[in-house]
């Protein structure tokens, strides 16, 4: 599954002359579902979209708050063209989930977002329609997100299994004496080193 997430000051969806939905400040999410996507991919996307820290906090510190923490809006639009594979210069969309399967899957993602957050703040386009999506990007800030789907090709799977086995064998042998010595030296150096730049959040646990 792929998503293009834009931080916006406002966004709206129009079909013909009718405005289907609109939001103020928040996120506009274009979501592309592939034929291989499962509920695990959907859960990952919902969790990340709602918890990405793309907004400032009350003191103005950037990249500190999520759309949920700021109680802002989300406009989600189904976008099968994100699953495009180019064949020469022609786009091919066979990697996208067929519409008859994608629509209930997409609807379940929306329901999951609404049950996790505030349902009145989750807006939608019109599945399968020819839409005009109007976005005023704030920043601009645009994030590309992919769900961590594993390979389905048997050769790739076999390669991954062999790599995992090698890692397990390495761990079972334990660190060498030189490795322990280096680790001890590094530990002593760390006690005298600065803890890092002020405001560093790299060690915080991500959702």
Structure description:
The chain has 207 residues and is of the alpha/beta class. 32% of the residues lie in helices and 28% in strands. The chain has four helices and eight strands; from the N terminus they run E-E-E-H-E-E-E-H-E-E-H-H. The protein has helices at residues 39-51, 99-116, 154-173, 177-192, and strands at residues 2-15, 18-23, 26-32, 73-78, 85-87, 90-92, 122-124, 132-146. Strands 1, 2, 3, 4, 7 and 8 form a six-stranded mixed β-sheet that branches. A two-stranded antiparallel sheet has the order 5-6. Strand 1 (2-15) and strand 2 (18-23) form a beta hairpin. The longest helix has 20 residues, at 154-173. The chain starts with a strand and ends in a 15-residue tail after the last helix. The model is unreliable at 191-203 (pLDDT under 50).
Global Rg: 22 Å
The overall strand count is 8
Low-confidence stretches: 191-203
**Which percent bin holds the helix content?**
25-40%
Counting helices, strands and paired strands, the structural category is alpha/beta
Could you give a short description of this structure?
With 207 residues, this protein is an alpha/beta fold.
Please give the structural blueprint:
Elements: E1 2-15, E2 18-23, E3 26-32, H1 39-51, E4 73-78, E5 85-87, E6 90-92, H2 99-116, E7 122-124, E8 132-146, H3 154-173, H4 177-192
Parallel strand pairs: 3-4, 4-7
Antiparallel strand pairs: 1-2, 1-3, 1-8, 5-6
Helix pairs in contact: 1-2
Question: Descriptors for this entry?
Answer:
two-stranded antiparallel ribbon, single chain, six-stranded mixed sheet
